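Ticket #4471: complex job returned nothing on first submit. Input attached below:
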Amino acid sequence: MEISTKEYRVWIEGTKIHYEGTMRLSGTDAYAPILSLMNDVLQSKPDEITLDLTELEFLNSSGINLLAKFTIEVRKQPDISIRVNGSKAVPWQSKSLKNLQRLHPALELTIS
Amino acid sequence: MADLGRIWTKTPMTSSKQTIPAEPVSDPIAIGSFSRHSFRAKFLLVVGAAVAFDLLLGGGISIWNVQRLSKDATEQVSQGLTEATEGYLETYIETTALRANLMLDRVYSEVEVLGNSLQVLIDNPDAESKIGSTLENHPRLGDRLQYNPEGNWTQNLPGRSVVSVWGYLLDEDGQPTPDVQKQIEDSSAFNVIAPELMSSGAAKLQMYYVGPKDRPIMRTTPYTEQAQTFDKLYPGHNESNFWDFFFPGVYEGWQQWLVDPASRPVDRDVVATAPYVDAITGALIVSFFQPLWTQDRSDVAGMAAVDITLNQLNNLVENVRIADTGFGFLAGSNGNVIAASQAGGAILGLVSMDSEGQGVTGINRFLNQSRHPAVASMELPTDNRTVIDHFTVTEGDIEKSYLILLKRLEPTNLWDGEKIVSETLTLGFVVSSQEIYESLTAVQQQISEATTRIVYWQITALLISLIIVFIAVYAISGRITAGLSSLAGAARSLQNKDYSVRVSIPSRDEVAAVGLAFNRMAEEISFHTENLENLVEERTKKLESANYEIVELNRKLQTENLRMGAELNVAKRIQEMVLPRRGELEQISQIEIVGYMEPADEVGGDYYDVLADGNRIKIGIGDVTGHGLESGVLMLMVQSVARALQEKGDTDPIAFLNVLNRTIFKNIERTKSDKHLTLAFVDYADDKVTLSGQHEDVLIIRGNGEIEQIDTMDLGFPVGLESDIADFVSTRDLAFERDDVLILHTDGVTEAENDAGDYFGLERLCESAQKYRGETAKQITEGIISDLRSHIGAHKVYDDITLVVLKHR
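Support reply: We reran it on our side without changes. The output follows.
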């Protein structure tokens, strides 16, 4: 499963969702295919879901909204643990990703 | 859509394809089968030029060789003929000279025989007198002298010879004096010898004997009436001494020889006279004298002599025949021509003049008096070699060239009328160059004619060869280029869209191979063309239906656009309505506040507000996710709630934000919106600000230039995501005094990119703010925006840009 454009790429390896490039989609509707892809992973009810954002250089506010909404969904299912990997090299991540942990304290955030 | 687009881009190509080929077809390069550009013409030109060059070169060389051969042959033949002719003439003149010498030598010999016989008797006087008296008394051999009183001379009666005794040798009775009588007797042997010599050997006119100077009796054979003739022709001769009268100088000359033998010019005793007309016979004669000597060789004892006509020599010379008019002549050393035919004399331009000699009449035709200067200036040879020369004479207007050969005869002693000198006769041959070289000229002409003929035939052959070759090449070129011509024709037909055309080339060469390939290609083209037409038809149908769909979609899109346009207009209006008025801001006395907003699209998601209530001023800044009407409505809600809370007098920023979040969250839930927003507030009162809510970093530039960068992540939480955010909200108090500047911004500022993909970033924002901090809030805003613009350049602006600058008055 993969969504790929000139700007960004999102793909799944098992229960790990990778994000790469610059995501500047115009709104919630534009992010729907990516949310659908993430929900597919969630619906398979895995023990753990990992969001790998280390290669995602930019994400606009709609994108952050997407991640927040997904985190809230995961929070509703305590059996599923979630892990988020970020990079210090990308400025927005160290600030914004902390909000995900606030939404769902069980979320395991790793910013390396 | 993408597929349709691809088909659409193809459609114009496909449809125009039917019109494009029409243009080049209207201008096909039609090459006539025999125009000067045709392959055949070029082929003809090349082969023709090669053959013509070859033939002309070969022909030229052979013509040149023939000419050279002709020239060489002419030269060789000319040289050979000239050598042969001149050699022949040389031999001829030498032979003739030899014959003339022999002829003269015989005469010399005969006069010498007579002289020597008489000399023997002189040298033996006893025998002489006995023989003399015996012969004198002999009835037939003796002289019967008879005095002629009329002439006063004594002469014998007719017999074997005549003896004349001149008056001055007679006594009173007419009888010879005793010593004269003795002389008559002693010389009577003449009667025996001379007549016999006369009858044999060379033809002679007469032979005679003359006694010594004191007794000059004269004996002559054959018998003539000698004295009578003398009386008639030479009056006075009987009164003078015979020697002195007839031959003055001869006798003395001989006497001189005795004294000085070296004075004899030629080593032979015989002396010749110059030719003269004989008084008796009237013939042109020459006399040859043989002197007789006394026994003791102390004096001259008379002479024996012979007269000959020059006829024989003349005959010999005049019978010379060379070519048609060639002739011979004989000249003395003084240039007097002794013998020459009349025609020859005329050619030489000789002028005859009679002249009187002593006793005899000579003949003078001198070469140096010739009418022709070339002849007159001619020099006779000075040695015995044969001289060959040329001379030209002009007769009237005609110039005639002659070849002349000169050859000297043996030298001889000559009595010139006064003394004895050496004389050498010269034999000459003259022949017209034209005649002698006639054969040569004829040969030259024949060679020249032959050459001309050969050259003529050569040129004719050359031209015929050229014509034949050209006809052959023309014929062959037709066959060779026929294949190419039909290929060219077929290609033209193909160009004119006649795909049914096929070529037929009977030959089995490369052209035929091209023809086969052409036929295959034509077949393929034909197949593809027909197929293409079907394909185009099919594709056109599909395109028509696609086009219909697109029109439909376009119509829908237009409707949607109208709808969206209307929505956007509403959203924009809402945003305009929500944002604070400039006049509102200017009324605030403590702080100078300037807000700047530039949406990326028609309507942005950024929000800011200034809520002033007496001394309390609350400034809000936020960023709603997404854009459009929904975002605008959310923003309006936030503004309304914030205004309401402010009006209610809620001074606790945490409660303020919590109530606001709950309100918005519930409304979002109700409207089933996916949106949320970041939101932060700055509360100002009494030189102090209180920050609350999570948003971008807040910058404070102090009056001394120090910058404080305040992270708001721990001061709040995104609004509208969670029902209760009380746990996350907190405040931070900071001093905000005179000349301090506070800057709020949205991520559209820091994340604005340039062409290289570099963000404007907080660092640049700080630098810029620091740079303009001394200015008014308005100027600071303009300065920062100007720096931001120059950073972005021509690059696309992705997000709304919002900047709020506060400056403490």
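The radius of gyration of chain A is 13 Å. Closing as resolved unless it happens again.
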